[in-house]
Amino acid sequence: MDSPKQSVLVLDGDMVAALTIARSLARRGVRVDLASHLAGVTASYSRAVTGFYCYPDPLSREDAFLDWLEKHLSFNQYDLVIPVTERTLVPISQHRAQLSGSTIAMAASDSLEVVLDKARTIALADELDIPVPVSITINGPGELKGVDGRFQYPVVIKPARSVGRSGHGRAQLKVEYAFTGEQLDARVRHALHFGPVILQEYVKGDGVGVEILAREGDILYAFQHQRLHEVPLTGGGSSLRKSVAVEPALLDAT
User: Fold this and answer.
1) How far apart are CA 104 and CA 77, in angstroms?
2) Which of 26, 66, 167, 243 is the most exposed place for a label (fewest CB within 10 A)?
3) How far apart are alpha carbons 54 and 52 in whole angstroms?
4) How many Å is the Cα radius of gyration of the chain?
5) How far is CA 109 from CA 4, 76, 78, 115, 204, in A?
6) DSSP-assigned letters across all residues of 19-50
């Protein structure tokens, strides 16, 4: 008698990464359900996906999303739940007790806090003598005084967290660039509505990234990619990448 298939729920189904995960799991004989805050996403039509569900937007309706997820998991048995982006990862991490009966692909809360807060990531790298760009964390408009003369333009304006919070809820944030003092002042003041902001020197060159799969600090698998195109073209999220050989120095820093 065949053993029952393992079953996985993949969240953030509107992201390309969710489709990649679903296809990879399906090739290994895993039953995959997909869920998103958007209806009719492309991945929902994939043959790798068995069922598709729509939940409240985690950014604007966090409590409703958590209630939906708790109820869905009480009626459906999954071996694993995979949050793909910070939209779902952050609220789930902050309410782990509410979902304690489910296995979720997510690091420990203290580790996540370091990773999700770029200022803390930079501070940790600095402690470990890993090279980082010149960086200044701004917590309020009053700290902008005198910053203009400490960088050459363009200046990178990076929210400390990719998902920020204001009086109107959470919002997906992005990296911006300032080419003048006026732009720096205006863009930082706007970004501060959602939390601390990191100003960094602009470093020209090829963008590469190292991804690892690790268990309790032991690296099981490492992969490196090079960015070929970014959106916007001046610098941003990568829209086209290629795999390249892992550089030992970058792996060591990782």
Assistant:
1) 13
2) 167
3) 7
4) 20
5) 32, 25, 22, 10, 34
6) HHHHHHHHHTT-EEEEEESSSS-GGGGSTT-S
Higher pLDDT, 193 or 1: 193
Please identify which residue in the block is written with the tokens 């995979």: 82
Alpha-carbon distance of 34 to 166, in angstroms, equals: 29
Q: Tell me which H or E stretch contains 139.
A: none
Segment among 29-33, 133-137, 162-166, 197-201 with least mean pLDDT: 162-166
The alpha-helical segments, DSSP class H, found in the chain are: 16-27, 62-75, 86-94, 109-116, 118-127, 181-191, 248-253
Kindly write down the DSSP assignment for every residue of 56-68, as one continuous string: --TTT-HHHHHHH
Specify the pLDDT at position 73. 94
Residue whose C-alpha is closest to residue 133's, from 198, 192, 184: 198
Beta bridge partners of 155: 178, 201
pLDDT digits (tens, 9 = 90+) for 65-102: 999 999 999 999 999 999 999 999 989 988 888 888 88
Beta bridge partners of 210: 224
Question: Residue 53: its pLDDT value, please?
Answer: 96
Read off the pLDDT band of 231 (50, 70, 90): confident
φ/ψ (deg, to 5) at 179: -105, -5
Burial class (CB in 10 A: 0-12, 13-18, 19+), 248: exposed
pLDDT of residue 3: 62
Nearby residues of 111 by Cβ (< 8 Å), 6 or more positions away: none
